[in-house]
Design brief:
Elements lengths: L3 E7 L3 E8 L6 E4 L3 H14 L2 E8 L6 H19 L8 E8 L2 E8 L5 E5 L6 E2 L2 E2 L1 H14 L2 E8 L3 H20 L16
Parallel strand pairs: 3-4, 7-10
Antiparallel strand pairs: 1-2, 2-4, 5-6, 6-10, 8-9
Length: about 200
């Protein structure tokens, strides 16, 4: 099975290429120009067992907003395209993940109907060169462009680095579960016959 995709998106603000394999081993090659964001995407690939290549040339002389939001758009599109017709996938995934003092929840449905819910807050404006406001923007962009119902919640936590990293890892684990193939599923997991 080769569930992979390559998505290229160029605007006046960003030039992005993402290559994604849902059936990988966690290998990654990430270059966004934002060190902390690179670290988060590497964690996503590693903990979801996705092979991921992300190359971004963004207008970082402005700020980090366009680079991070547009990367979410392209990653969401890559997930949607790699899934194809979604035959045999489990569709749903969830994870409650601890990281030191932090505990986060991620639940998602690859329903084709985007919905995003985020419940959490941060104490600082930035982690490294990444604005903490951009965490919500990134996951919202992924949700909309993947056609994914995505709920993220920070249940406990004090350190913003831990909170953000736990969110990316929980998302990876939940997505890995949802894209997994279940041999009991004939076609797609829906009484409608399509998702």
């Amino acid at each position: 099975m080769n569930r992979s995709s390559e998505v290229i998106r160029k605007t006046k603000e960003t030039d992005i290429c993402i290559r994604l394999s849902l059936d990988g081993t966690g290998k990654s090659n990430i270059r966004t120009g934002i060190g902390f964001f690179d670290h988060m995407l590497e964690a996503f690939a590693k903990h979801g067992f996705f092979d991921l290549e992300v190359m971004v040339n963004g207008d970082l002389q402005v700020d980090d907003h366009h680079t991070i939001e547009d990367t979410g758009i392209v990653l969401g599109t890559a997930i949607r395209e790699a899934l194809g017709d979604k035959t045999g996938i489990r569709r749903y995934g969830s994870m409650i993940l601890p990281m030191d003092e932090t505990l986060v929840l991620c639940a998602l449905d690859l329903s084709g109907r985007p919905w995003f819910c985020f419940d959490g807050s941060f104490c600082t404006e930035r982690c490294g060169e990444m604005g903490t406001q951009m965490v919500r923007e990134f996951f919202n962009s992924v949700s909309v462009n993947a056609g994914m119902n995505l709920h993220l919640r920070i249940l406990e936590g004090q350190n913003d680095h831990h909170k953000i990293e736990a969110l990316f890892k929980a998302f990876a684990r939940a997505l890995d579960e949802a894209v997994g193939i279940d041999p009991r599923i004939e076609g797609v997991l829906s009484t409608k016959g399509s998702i």
